[in-house]
Amino acid sequence: MPAEPLAAILYTPEDKIEALLAQAACMLASRGVRLGGVIQHDIAGTDDTPHTMELEDLASGSRFALTQDLGSGSDACSLDTAALAEAAAAVRDSLAAPPDLVLINKFGAQEVGGAGLRDEIGQAVAAGIPLLTAVGIRFADDWHTYTGGTGVLLEARLDAILAWWDSR
What Pfam families does the record tag this protein with (predicted)? Predict the structure, then answer.
């Protein structure tokens, strides 16, 4: 267990945070770390299909859509709030095991607004399970307020994540 059990990767829009979290999850799992939580996978679209997102339940390996098809020409937010509810249930289920580490794809607009996986982040921390998430730079102040200044901010680099996990 890391010395500081709560960590957030501070990232910019240029960082490929979903790929970094997937890489970190793969690397940690290969080292025998039991993972819980969810990470996001971006699925590139084509000229005929839009970009979509999936969440992977790290405890079971199952994936489910995070976006909904709003039809051609729509510019509304395609986030599927029902999928967020499914993600929340997956995270809560994984806490029962419990895992060595919970990964949450990000602390973003939904969490800042009091929804998304905000409660599940708190449940993992309250249970004493180390947690790693990602926080966009625009939400850094909100994260600081939410955590009361606890935890550590990491650079968006695999070696920083692994060094955090290995700290004792």
Answer: DUF2478 (PF10649)
Percent of the chain whose pLDDT exceeds 90: 71
pTM for this predicted structure = 0.88
d(CA 157, CA 123): 26
Give Cα 5 to chain centroid, integer Å: 15
Are 27 and 41 a contacting pair, CB within 8 Å? no
- Report yes or no: 5 and 146 within 8 Å, Cβ to Cβ: no
pLDDT of residue 154: 98
HEC string of 38-67 equals EEEEEECCCCCCCCEEEEEECCCCCEEECE
Across residues 156-164, what is the average pLDDT? 98
24 touches 150 (CB < 8 A): no
Closest CA to 98 of 58, 61, 146, 153: 58
- Report DSSP state, residue 125: H
Question: Domain ranges in the chain?
Answer: 12-42+53-66+79-128+146-167
